[in-house]
Amino acid sequence: MLLKSTSMKGWGLLVGSVLLFLSFAASIVLGYTDVNLMDVYQAFFNFQQTNDHIIIRDVRLPRAIIAVCVGSSLAMSGVLMQALTRNPLASPGIFGINAGASMFVVIAVSFAAGLSMQSLTWVSFVGAAVAAIIVYAIGAAGREGLTPVRLTLAGAAIAALFSSLTQGFLVMNEKALDEVLFWLAGSVQGRSLDYLLPVLPYFIFAWIGSLLIARHINLLMMGEEVATGLGQKTAWIKAAAGLLIIALAGGAVAVAGPIGFIGIVVPHFARSLVGHDHRWVVPYSALLGAILLLFADISARYIIMPEEVPVGVMTAIIGTPFFVYIARKGLKGS
Amino acid sequence: MNKYRVFRTKGGRFSALFDQRALTVALSLTAVLAGLFILSASLGEMFINPFEVIKVLLGQGSDTSGLVVNKFRMPRMLVALLTGVALAVSGAILQGMIRNPLASPDIIGITGGAAVAVVAFLSAFSDENNALTVSIQWMTLAAFAGAMVVGIAVYLLAYKNGVSPMRLILIGIGISALMQALTTMFMIVGPIFRAAQANIWLTGSVQGSGWDDVHILAPIVVVLTIFAILIARRVNAQELGDELAAGIGAHLQWDRLLFLGLCTALTGVAVAFAGGVGFVGLMAPHMARRLVGSSYGGLIPVAALVGAILVLGADLIGRTMFSPQEVPAGVFTATIGAPYFIYLLFKSKRA
Hints:
The structure holds two protein chains of two kinds.
Chain A: H1 6-29, H2 37-45, H3 51-85, H4 97-111, H5 117-140, H6 148-172, H7 174-185, H8 193-220, H9 224-229, H10 234-256, H11 262-274, H12 278-302, H13 311-329
Chain B: E1 4-8, E2 15-19, H1 20-42, H2 50-57, H3 63-98, H4 110-124, H5 137-158, H6 165-189, H7 192-203, H8 211-230, H9 232-239, H10 242-247, H11 252-274, H12 280-292, H13 296-320, H14 329-347
Antiparallel strand pairs in B: 1-2
Helix pairs in contact in B: 1-2, 1-3, 1-13, 2-3, 3-8, 3-9, 3-11, 3-12, 3-13, 4-5, 4-6, 4-7, 5-6, 5-11, 8-11, 8-13, 12-13, 12-14, 13-14
């Protein structure tokens, strides 16, 4: 780990917050329509019906807020998922969350044409929850309860099943493909705060929950026997972590579509900075996830201007070089 | 000693030890595969009596059924079967080498490399009318080249005083995410028709395979699979962990390079001819493990059989169920495989 002492970790958190704020500001300022910070200030405190002001208030700001919420939620759910499965390769996708959400959305688009984007938010949230509950139930059914291997395998099987059904629907129905291809790649573009508001309560509840549960996750990571021996009710902690993952990753996919990479790699970034204490890994992941998604979203505007690349594509393009670098330098214990 | 059965040649020069259970399972799976093969040859737009199929296979039977079976159905069935074998063997070796149940040719980016090559090929060589300007044969080559390039790149990036499984898989995940991103980007930038065509490839389909394909695919897959079975012992050694494996005399680094090369080649030819058929590389080895245990001597052949059955069955369903519309085989590998896998997960006492 890079940051060894507690005070350094604390300072790191502060630096991270400043970075987050700067990228947030950059996300509002940069883009096809050039505005400067003065305009931003004016837009809030001296609002005029000019184009710039409307863009700032109705397009850029919601987009940046959504990127922060989605990025941090995905990263936190990745931390929990990797802890729960004790597998560094696990991501919320392994829980079948993205696959379930995608399948429900594709089915909805195929059979009920003309659904509003808002109702798709709910459809995908429900799909994510249904898939995750099925996976959890299969993983936990059996004499010895939920073991990491069973959960991982059940998740991989269900995710494969759902995504192949999705592929099937898309192959049979090219029109649906056209409509949902952009959704399937994940994007924070063109989403107003109305998309975020329905899931925001779940997000807030889950963010607090993740910070609170971090202590117990540390214990759980020592192994089932040790944790039980120290008096932890492991089944409860696992169930709570499962619920948090559904709220975080399900909410994220509902707002922005399946955005890959963040859930799987940001926890590794965070661990390379602060080691294995989840009380630090969770907040660091949240910060790093938000920053990565903001950056990805900003660069997504510039690649094929004036059109935009889905942000899910950019997270991978930006994140991979870093990730390869960290993997080569050596990941502590993972 | 009734758990194993020993076979020896007369002079005792060659001998082999067979696990009784693996042998039974392998024989019954072979029977299932043979039955499925005959069934698959008889079903389709034109029904042919299974006995007639057997006659055709033995070189008799009427001209019409001979034509349908030999010319139309046989090549694609063989391609499906060989694809299943290749992906399953490749997945089994990777899971042993990386010691992680989630390892599969998809997750370390080999399939993704092929996918990028294919979508790039489709967008580079299509004209305004969405007609390809070069022969579709080149797409096969592009897919294979993409898989190989990524396989080599992952190995080189992971190399640092040798390759550790963890570094290999992490870098593989990163690269595979990048490949997925590039694939999506190519699909979104291009027109919808091209996206639809690429999507069929990504799902995995053996439609339109001919004898030419079989002639290239069959020798490669057969040779590599036999080779894989012969070196199964070394995969067992890798599964013990680095220290123990080195202690019992395994050449860790050479073996890793060998295994990765083997997996890349097997996956590369499979996806080149059938596209990104999912699920098989990941799940067929797990199914095999639950049927015969995790010793690789029995595991690789059984995984190969399971993979063959999965893809052959998936293709059969794909071309008959919604006839006359063709559904790519890749849609059904998971649809038929996942429920069976979940059943196995329930049945087994230990996970």
